[in-house]
Amino acid sequence: MAELEQRRILKTEIPGPRSIELMARKSGAVARGVGTTMPVFAVGAGGGVVVDVDGNSLIDFGSGIAVTTIGNSAPRVVAAVRDQVQLFTHTCFMITPYEGYVAVCEQLARLTPGDHEKRSALFNSGAEAVENAVKIARAYTKKQAVVAFDHAYHGRTNLAMALTAKSMPYKFGFGPFAGEVYRAPMSYPFRDGLSGEAAAARAIDVLDKQVGVDNLACIAIEPILGEGGFVVPAPGFLPALAAWAAEQGVVFIADEIQSGFCRTGDWFACDHEDVVPDLVTTAKGIAGGLPLAGVTGRAELMDSVHVGGLGGTYGGNPVACAAALGSISEMETHDLAARAREIGAAMHSRLTALQERHAVIGDLRGRGAMMAIELCAPGTTDPDPVRTAAVSAYCHQQGVVTLTCGTWGNVFRFLPPLSIPDSLLEEAFDVVAEAFAATA
Ligand SMILES: Cc1ncc(COP(=O)(O)O)c(C=O)c1O
After folding, report:
1. Rounded distance between C-alpha atoms, residue 265 and residue 248, angstroms
2. What is the pLDDT of residues 87-130, one digit of tens each?
3. Ligand 1 atom closest to residue 293's alpha carbon, by position in its atom list
4. Which residue from 122, 329, 389, 421 has the fewest beta carbons nearer than 10 Å?
């Protein structure tokens, strides 16, 4: 496909007539439960834009939920995928293996936090990686209890739903959920005002007294909450939890599915505080849009599982592995972690200016190109999901793809692809500023 013009172009109202037609077809064929943020059908995407069936070119502030970090159809990924599909599309790694899978695991060992010996296993989706991390932790510790945190999101399979905090829409009506899952309080500086150490002590007390270390296989935590609202825990919270887990022989699982692979301005969000997890789950940004996920961890832990205990028909598909190798090479060649920091600085300054003008913006937080604002009644922490939805709807109508999140639906999150040109980033923030002014 020819390179897409890096401009916002509105040829029709959003959604345009062809998207409206396709939405009608969608209702007749696709299950209602599969919702869409914007009723707009894509035909192309790249750099910082998504082009729709009506010829509109929208600015992408979502990256397909933090997936196309390196940009959509990045040339290196396209070339790697094309080469691989011509050779073979699948053999099943559990039947006749191939080098791409091994190479991705080698890269994961090199890039994830810590220089200890590591092993990895590959899967298709984030939820599957999380499920497998828990399986591995249980097999290694021979214990069963699993702790997740308030506001957590770990996916939509049964165990992942159990680990996820929010009921509607993720869990509502889908129980019963997997057993032996417990919840601990997360550090949420805007809401709890606690230092990292105090928030960790509060969480550890729950682990110790309500769950019981003797039962506890692992704690699973997003080092920056994703769907839960881009909450960055207070400094010291993650290191204190990780240190406690190490002392107690509890497996510390960092779910870096949304925060990993350069998104936060480093390879992984754990890197910012030198936290070295026992297991790391990855997906999303790893493969430039192809479905791939991984669990990477200490060799003795990963290798504690019996032969044949991990796997799946498609896990580590050769095309997805080729895409991941292309993505990683793109990230390194262009130092995309540095680009994420640059984008983060630009977003921070635009959002600070916005916060000064609009008291509804209670909190501004995030790292690198993973940034958010939380909307509350001025001067309080009372969530304002109505204003959040209004601002978001305005952005959509003006051709900016924006996403919301948070337990109360009152967080506006910014996840641009790192390939977005500065001019588009600025233009998108002009639209966000207009949206705040227009909905005041
Ligand atoms: C932190 C985190 N864990 C797990 C998942 C689940 O990933 P998937 O949708 O690929 O199953 C997500 C997806 O948003 C996520 O953000």
Report:
1. 31
2. 999 999 999 999 999 999 999 999 999 999 999 999 999 999 99
3. 10
4. 421
Whether ligand 1 lies within 6 angstroms of the CB of 81 is answered as: no
What ranges in 145-260 are assigned the alpha helix state H? 158-163, 189-192, 196-206, 237-248
pLDDT at 1 over 70: no
Q: At what angle do helices 237-248 and 196-206 cross, to 10 degrees?
A: 40
Residues 6 and 321: their CA atoms lie apart, in Å, by: 29
Look up residue 238 and give its amino acid.
L
pLDDT in tens, 241-284: 999 999 999 999 999 999 999 999 999 999 999 999 999 999 99
Strand partners, 49: 46, 59
Quick one: tokens of 307? 């032969």
Tell me if 367 sits within 8 A of 264, measured CB to CB: yes
Could you give the 3-state DSSP secondary structure of residue 337? helix
Token code pair at residue 79: 């070339």
What 3-state class would DSSP assign to 157?
A: coil
As given in the structure block, the two tokens for residue 306 are 């019996």
Residue with tokens 């699982």: 253
Sign, CA dihedral 371-375-381-383, equals negative
- Probe target for ligand 1 pocket from 63, 67, 128, 154, with the most ligand atoms within 8 Å of CB: 154
**What's the whole-number mean pLDDT along residues 226-245?**
98
> Is pLDDT at 39 greater than 60 in this prediction?
yes
pTM of the model: 0.98
Question: CA-to-CA distance for 240 and 221, rounded, in angstroms?
Answer: 13
Return the percent helix, strand and coil in the chain, to nearest 5.
Answer: 40, 15, 40
pLDDT in tens, 313-326: 999 999 999 999 99
Which alpha helices (H) appear in 157-234, and where do they start and end? 158-163, 189-192, 196-206
Question: 258 CB less than 6 Å from ligand 1?
Answer: yes
Q: What is the dihedral of CA 225, 230, 235, 237, to 10 degrees?
A: -20
Does the Cβ of 319 fall within 6 Å of ligand 1?
Answer: no
Whole-angstrom distance, CA of residue 67 vs CA of residue 57: 19
CB contact at 8 A, 122 and 294: yes
- The amino acid that residue 164 corresponds to is T
